[in-house]
Amino acid sequence: MSKFLVLFSLIFIVARVSGQSLPIIPQPAEEHVGDGAFILDQNTSIVFDAGNAQLADIAAQLNEYLNKFYGFELPVNAKTKSELSLKLIKALPLGDEGYLLKVDKKGIVITAKAPVGIFYGTQSLQQMLPVSPTEPKQLSLPVADIKDQPRFVWRGLHLDVGRHFFPVSFIKKYLDYMAMYKLNTFHWHLTEDQGWRIEIKKYPGLTDISSWRNETLVGHAGKSDKYDGIGYGGFYTQSQVKEIVQYAADKYITVIPEIEMPGHSLAVLAAYPELGCTGGPYKVGQTWGVFKDVYCAGKEETFTFLENVLDEVCELFPSKYIHIGGDECPKDRWKECPLCQKRMKDEGLADEHELQSYFIKRIEKYLNSKGRQIIGWDEILEGGLAPGASVMSWRGIKGGIEAAKQKHNVVMTPGSHLYFDHYQSKDTEKEPLAIGGYLPLSQVYSYEPVPEELSADEQHFILGAQANVWTEYIPSTMQAEYMLFPRVCALSEVVWTTKDKKDFADFEKRMDTEYQRLDKFGVNYRKKD
Ligand code: ACM
Ligand code: ZN
């Protein structure tokens, strides 16, 4: 067969009606289950271009998985009875992230345009393996053809490490979970009122002072005034940050750091009070909520500080986007601060919203000069959007619609569907204490990221969607897993699977297998009602 014909026959899988569906999450674009099976065992070699380091690494990651959960590895580029072949074909028209996965009775072939597609093919393959094989080292796979590619380019998951700190080992686990479900953007919320979590060499006060609080509220903010009297804190060293960024890259995940400004900055002010309007003194936050003390927008020192911080952040994170926060910045102090008021007068700014816009635009200009783009929460629309800013729409979808209409990129993260800090049951007594809300699995699954209000042209500005995990009420890794699972599985179909292929009843059926897999991994997921 000519090369063209091979490609042609690979791409056009005839979709026969088949009763069987594969337990793959997110649901692939096309799949067909045939008759018979292939046995994957130690006589199957992973075969690929040995000169390609990325393919070698993907093969090693697959072997690590097999070893961990089935107790054996496959030989690599060896002469064996059967093959699991990883093939790059540049002309494959499925985008970089798409792949073909073909299992027949003789072997397995994963084909993609780029290594990331091969990686996603191996993730699907892992989900097709029997959870509890009858013969532990003989893994039976159904004969199948899969053709797959994602719907959105931004398939995000966020983690707030400011309110509670999570160790490097858990961040890696989190990235493992993301990769399993083909999520590709980790939004690392690194700075908060209650703790600054990233080492910045120029400002040691950020780790000596801003990363620690003296005590923490017990119970729910607004309902409790009890504190635990126990010091709490932690931060990631630059070497740990580099380790995590590399670990993510090996799983084809981009890490977007968030450095909050102008609000959510109380912890910084505790160490550097000269950056606030009143000069302090300030204390690292010990309760949850929104604090009035924010960076002074009138002082040049504020911008010098942030630019120096961002210099180090850009050295550590190669991402195109840097998240600059922008949410929940009370304007009380700015209204009373002579320097902020002078700035408004000098710059011809009509109100404090325009002062916030000035702040963000100035930071955008700086980051653009370093070749980066900014993304911020939807409050950055207020007072005028910075020229190249992308918007994360969290207060519903209004901000996302407005930004797309202004021809700005948008990531949808509405609280109504994608805030994983909300309760998973109406019976909150039976759940761990949470911030509020009610977000069951079905509601996450039902989310459609492209608003009907947008024209076809405007819809192109919706890059994708993301779920957020705020951790005021999530003090442990066990609880973080509980809030994440199974909702992260539903998220993956929101951002990967096309609308016509989404089916909640079918998803729940596939979840029955996935729960067994999660049991095998030891994941603390929330059980079905
Ligand atoms: C947010 O939830 N404050 C972005
Ligand atoms: Zn001020």
Explain what the structure shows.
The strands form five sheets. Strands 7-8-15-16-17-18-19-20 form an eight-stranded parallel β-barrel, surrounded by five helices. A six-stranded mixed beta sheet has the order 1-6-4-5-3-2, with helices on one face. With 529 residues, the chain is of the alpha/beta class. Helix 2 links the parallel strand 2 and strand 3. It contains 18 helices and 20 strands. Helices cover 35% and strands 19% of the residues. Bound molecules: acetamide and zinc ion. The site of zinc ion has 8 residues, from helix 10.
List keywords for this structure.
elongated, binds zinc ion, 529 residues, alpha/beta, six-stranded mixed β-sheet, binds acetamide
Ligand list:
acetamide, zinc ion
Strand content: 15-25%
State the separation between the terminal residues, measured CA to CA.
Answer: 54 Å
Unreliable stretches covering 5 or more consecutive residues = 11-18
- Mean pLDDT across residues: 96
State the share of residues found in helices, binned by percent.
25-40%
Q: Per the principal axes of the C-alpha atoms, what is the gross shape?
A: elongated
Largest sheet: 8 strands, parallel, barrel
How many strands appear in the DSSP assignment?
20
Question: What's the number of helices?
Answer: 18
User: How are the strands ordered across the major sheet?
Assistant: 7-8-15-16-17-18-19-20
Rg result: 25 Å
Q: Which secondary-structure class do the elements indicate?
A: alpha/beta
